[in-house]
Amino acid sequence: MNKKRLVIPIITLVLTVIILVGMIASTIILSQKKETKWNYYVDDEKLHYYEDPSEYSFACVTEFRAALKGYIGNTALQFLDLNSKVDKLCDRIILSMEQARIPATKLATIAKVMNENRLPMLFTRIDTPFNTIEEFSEWSDNLVLSVTDENTFSILSSFINSFLEISTLTEEEFSLILYYYLYDYGSDTYRITLELFGKDLFVSFLSDTFFAIRTIYRTNDTKGISLSMNALRASLYQMGKFYIDLSAVGNTERLLGFPEDFPTDNYPGLAEIIDEYYGDIKGSLSNILLFIGHLFTTFTAEELSAYREYQQYKSENYREIAILTELKESELISERELVRLTQLTDKQYRYKIIAAQKMTKALLRGFALYSDREYSEVITSLKDKIITMRTLMFYLSENISYENNFETMELIENDSLEFSEALAYFVMTDYSYDEILNMDDISALSVYADKFESGEELLELYFSSILNVWITYKVNDWGLLSNE
Q1: Confidence at 141, pLDDT banded by 50, 70, 90
Q2: Max avg pLDDT among 70-84, 100-114, 426-440
């Protein structure tokens, strides 16, 4: 597996994929469960698109429904094989938009951009070559650990930013639509969870996350670095404070659709083992959200700027470095090209070292706020949770080989060890920009900069493992696993 990227945006993969794809899709899968009718009251009376005497309003909604049907049919439902449910999904989305009081004029705007093929399509940009849960598990690991010139976060953040910008929906409006959709069409158990957390908390959870994602995305295109870094810091701080408050409420997993007890009907003879391992990982998502919340409140503009410069340099030179590296490995590189490759990689490592040194300081502050234990103990605990989740997946998935599972376990152990070593090293350094950029020998620093990235990989494996457990539960919950 290759190493990748970033501490800051990894959370968005889980939050966005789970909420935007999994939860919404789950409500339109026709299972054998009988639908329950509910009556409830909200603070604001919903709009009534079709009862509006204005012909314009009716026309807007009718046009929007036709455009939405075409858009959905060509995106998310295509790989979920749910095309037969498009009409039902469209009706439900429109009713949820009524509840959220989205003006008909906005529906007309969205319909226009969909008809002009300007509204972004997320899944046309992410390859989904899987048909089974085991293949999904492997795909999700590769997705978060792969190195490309356009990473998963950039695709996801670009989609979210473009979708909201072009549709003219605000973060709060979009979050309200999701809230009403899930409240009206989610399971009975999930409805109770939403009532426990409340509309305001749910909407703030999503809208703050979306706002931070858009700020991170826009920061990459902002020329005023000092201004953009302060804006990013303020956005992350707000998001971090909210995650801390959310973790204090407890049961965050329930908000994202995890069960209280993992269903074992499809795993005869394994109920006791599954209960033991699932019980051990309960609270894993809440714990990591709490840590990320503390971390986001500690960042300085200087630390974010250092990381941005490294990411920007790597992004700008990714293609050239990849081509030259391939030529070198094939022994086809010229002397001039070799010099160029050396220059590029040397400068990239210097930016990487600066970023690792700065981010170490932020991480240690985050660890201190999160727990009174030593950071090495917290990392060990993180590692143990990942191994438990991977072991659970090994029991749940028939086609994961012992060899592949053992290889993943070794990777997790190695990542946790290297990450601890990197933090212990960089906590002792305090080189300035000029000192690192002008240093003659950076070999030792480079080794630990590579080890620092093991922490990013460890965190990504943590979220990938949570996602794997979640999707396995959902497939079981939706009745898509046979009982043979």
Answers
A1: low
A2: 426-440
Q: Nearest CA to 295 among 171, 459, 172?
A: 459
Q: Which amino acid is at 377?
A: E
Whether the pLDDT of residue 29 is over 50: the answer is: no
Compute and round to an integer the Cα radius of gyration of the chain: 24
Q: What angle do CA 448, 453, 456 make, to 5 degrees?
A: 150
Percent of all residues in the chain with a pLDDT value above 90, rounded to a whole number: 30
Closest by CA to 427, choosing from 364, 333, 355, 348, is 364
Average pLDDT over residues 153-179: 81
Residue 382 contacts residue 419 (beta carbons within 8 Å): no
Global pTM? 0.75
Q: What whole-number distance in Å separates Cα of residue 321 and Cα of residue 221? A: 22
Neighbours of 76 (CB within 10 A): 18
| Residue (of 341, 310, 339) closest to 323 by Cα position | 341
Tokens coding 375: 């950071």
Amino acid code (one letter) for 382: L
pLDDT at res. 43:
43
* 431, amino acid identity: Y
As a whole number, mean pLDDT of residues 452-473 equals 82
Amino acid at 174: F
What six digits make up the tokens of 175?
């979050």
Token representation of residue 71: 């858009």
Q: What is the pLDDT of residue 475?
A: 64
CA dist., res. 366 & res. 393, Å (int): 30
- Sign of the CA dihedral running 211, 212, 213, 215: positive
Average pLDDT over residues 418-443: 94
Mean pLDDT of 171-200: 86
